[in-house]
Amino acid sequence: MRRTLSLVALAAAPVVVLTLFFLLPVGGMLARGLWPDGADGGFDPGAALEVLARPRTGRVVWFTVWTSSAATAVAVLLGLPAAYALHRLRWRGRAAVRAALLVPFVLPTVVVGVAFRQLLREGGPLGFLGLDQTPAAIVMGLVFFNVSVVVRTVGAAWEGLDRRPAEAAAALGASPATVFRTVTLPALRPAVASAAGVVFLFCATAFGVVLTLGGVRYASVETEIYLLTTVLYDQAGAAALSIVQLLAVVALLVVTGRLRRVADATVQRVTARPQRPRRADAPQLALTGLLVVALATPIAALVVRSLRDDGRWSLANYTALQTRGDDGLLVVPATTALRNSLQTAVDATWIALLLGLLVAVVLTGRSRSRAERRTRAVLDGFFMLPLGVSAVTLGFGLLVTLGREPLDLRTWPLLVPLAQALVALPLVVRTLVPVLAGIDDRQRQAAASLGAGPLRTALTVDVPVVARPLLASAGFAFAVSLGEFGATSFLSRADHPTLPVVVVRLLGRPGEQNYGMALAAAVVLAATTALVVLAVERLRVPALGAW
């Protein structure tokens, strides 16, 4: 009983935070859809069904499904050759390429959207294709953002495959294509399916990419919720769509979680050094090189365009970040928004690390009684709830529940960092749990038997093992927070915006200076995020593969 009470006490802080800033907002959002007339009205699911029966809602849902499916298929096709080249072969520059392919995953979605606009707009490098503000542009942006998930997830499984079955098939005369189709692919199928499920989930909940690339003609469920809330003021309609998205995301998470467990169970882990490339590996290496060029091209187009002003090379767009734009569009200069973003990211990072470390310790502790096992199982499910809610839904829920009396927290400095910390929390937990779970409990017992107390035992046994993953978690949480836009777009104030919010605001108002400032701000945001991610990659912690 004492151990169970200690477990509950350790979990108290994250439970309280998730209850106040997750369950309460999501519950308020659900109430807006099912009780549209407020507390004085009755339960009315018909109002939500009416929203779902609208022709536009059907088009939005279908657009989300088919663009996410198309982007997932393309990401898998492009990611498989790169996964082989980067995880099964050993060649000069492999580490640098692996780090470069990780950067797109954590780039702010707004930056990705702006970069593709520069690539595909009229007069851009690929403007002759006529793809600007088309569904094809949205699919391209989604693939850019998520192909690294396939590379890391499938590559991690590919590293652990036993080479002997494939070598035996080759020795019997099977061609490389036959070996891949009959031996390798069946072994990788669970990992590929798991990666595809995660990519589809990320595509379906991509907010900034669709918002910037879709224009006014195309909308996903995420952008439709944003439109209904901020433009049409139809909170009941937004809540109804949020309910649908919540159910769909939870179902996807259940499926992908099961696929991931199957992948972990079916892959036989072996220790084998990557082999040197052979002549037959030339196509995979060439495709990997083309993938790197394809991912670098939109960012290069963004950087080049940000350095052009009135047809000449100039830093005018960057110096203009110290102003408030044409006609005083911004309440504060963009440089102030950058400082706000950095401070918000710092706050979100320490909150996510504190909560994530407590959650990881709670989930990986040794259960010595049935009550303790049950308590830990319940807490495990509770702490994973944020995985089932997108950032837009969370931001909308926080807006409608904590933005009015008796609990008006709109001016609370930690409201936005808390929302961003909840978005980053799953990545922190997924990074730390495997590390803590892998520590042999006998080491702790040996330290205790030598007279070390709980604190000394943790400092001696746990801290050296968890230090690098904790630092990597901090970097990823900082990068995610720096570019987070879905929840922040609902919660940030005009006098205290973050840089992604400023970029979208500048893009939404005509004016050459506003447009140039948006490009320069996007480059600054991308560069800051990339530097953080590249520093984290040097720690060699496979956080992304945990998905």
TrEMBL record:
Subcellular location(s) of the protein: Cell inner membrane; Cell membrane
The ABC transmembrane type-1 domain, residue ranges: 61-256, 338-536
InterPro entries: MetI-like (IPR000515), MetI-like_sf (IPR035906)
Principal location class: membrane
UniProt-listed Pfam families: BPD_transp_1
Spans traversing the lipid bilayer: 60-83, 95-116, 136-155, 191-216, 236-255, 285-304, 348-365, 377-402, 414-437, 515-536
Highest taxon of source: Bacteria
Keyword Chaperone: no
Keywords for the protein's UniProt record, in alphabetical order: Cell inner membrane, Cell membrane, Membrane, Transmembrane, Transmembrane helix, Transport
Topology versus the membrane: Multi-pass membrane protein
UniProt family annotation: Belongs to the binding-protein-dependent transport system permease family.
Name the record gives this protein: Iron ABC transporter permease
Organism: Nocardioides marinquilinus
